[in-house]
Amino acid sequence: MRFPPARMLFVLPALLGAFALAACGGSDRTETTVDVVLKEWSIELSDASAPAGDITFDLDNEGPDHAHQLLIIRTDFAPGQLPTKSNGTVDEGADGVNVIGKIAKFDEGKRSSGTFTLEAGKYVLICNLYDEDKGEKVSHYAKGMQVAFTAE
Question: What mean pLDDT comes out for the span 38-66?
Fold first, then answer.
């Protein structure tokens, strides 16, 4: 196909732009995996930080006695200073608490995972379940299931 020279002024930049976008093809997006061990009463991370972008959290519930979950909260609060309800669970609707994602409750001895797009910033990862332990009701968060995480 031949274009008159005047049209080339419009067609050539459009083609170059299309090729540039195709070459980028989302290569700016970083994908990282963070291993997470949940157990009574802690959360252990393979890395306390990762590049901003798509982050996969691979969870292993070592229990030994309880199901757990994982909430990813963007916040400036320190892990142990999140606003709580009267039962010790985190108030997920409170000012300064922005729940980015959640991996649903799963049983001890099981694995789960989830991928979330995190912008650069500070996060707190928690288990926010409230259930029975040795005959009394407990908040997993209040028992220590909280850890800082940074997307850089």
Answer: 97
